Amino acid sequence: IKQNQNTENDDPFRKIKNAKFRKKSAVKSGDRATFNLFQYLTKTSKEKKKEIQFKYRTVYKSGNRSHKIWKPRGKTREGGKRKKYTKLKKAILSYRRQKSQNQPKNDLNAELLQETVHLIKSLSIDSQEKEKETQKVAVSNELEPTHELVKSIHSRRFRSYCDNCTTPLLIELTEQLIRELDRFQKRAVAQNAIKAHAHRRFVVGFREANNFLLVKKVKLIIIAPDCEKCDGEDGLDEKISNIKKQCQQQSVPYIFSLRRRQLAYALFKKAPVGCVVVLDFDGAREIFLKLLQALEIARKSYEDLTNKVK
User: Fold this and answer.
1) Quick check: 202 and 264 in contact, CB under 8 A?
2) Fewest Cβ atoms nearer than 10 Å: which of 162, 208, 214, 244?
3) pLDDT band for position 223 (50/70/90)?
């Protein structure tokens, strides 16, 4: 018996007879077993929700994967969407068509005209006829001296709507101002695009110029002196004259300095720019004041040129 007791004490895997470590049975002695039938019931939804299946389009990188190229469904235009032209663009295009129709289609007429001019020049003109011609020219010069002078000043690069001379100082200052404002605007867009759009430094285009002149938020307008000629209603010449009138009424300075390509180069744009509207010049006030001084000098020089003969 003692041997059996020793073996029981030495056995490490013996059962521990202790109330703490006993598993509590669900049913006690003397109690009845109870259960709930609702536990065994399963809920069945009458209308199962339809699973939404999203179809994702696979995007592949460039390479020769002809079997994996995604093809769009439906009809597509070959040249892309058709552009919607503005009234100004339509007027310019119609003026170009009229101009091309009026010009001679064949170059034979031009060659014949050149030949006739050479023949006339080769003929000898009498001294009396020469004197008469010189007298006529002198009379015409006395009657309309300023008109011919203005014609000699203006050209395709410097149109008749310009009021100031394009001095090198004026060109340099306008380029500096535009570049500074463009730098400020790009920095603001990088920080917060929505806030930057609400507080823009400058705007491009004749339509934007009209819109902001109506609201009276314009500080300066820079117009290209080599804009395309376009007469008639809703034409470019009429737009520029209206902008000039509004600027004079609101005492807003306007400048004719940089050409269209130069404005586009300053703003890092491919298409030529005809008009730049300055809305806020904070941070470039010194350049702005210098530009206004240079503008006064350029206008005086233009007035001196036109009033020389008078």
Assistant:
1) no
2) 214
3) very high
Confidence of residue 148 (pLDDT cuts 50, 70, 90): low
Q: Is 218 exposed, middle or buried (0-12, 13-18, 19+ CB in 10 A)?
A: buried
Residue type, 96: R
Question: Cα(163)–Cα(161) distance, rounded to whole angstroms?
Answer: 7
Claim: this prediction has a pTM higher than 0.85 = no
Contacts of 163 (CB under 8 A, 6+ apart): 244, 256, 299, 302
Angstrom distance (rounded) from CA 95 to CA 235: 9
- The CATH number of whichever domain residue 286 belongs to comes to 3.30.1330.30
106: which 2 tokens? 């064949």
Tell me the two tokens of residue 82: 């058709």
What secondary structure does DSSP assign to 125-157, as a single string? --HHHHHHHHHHHHHHHHHSHHHHHHHHH--SS
Q: Domain total for the chain?
A: 1
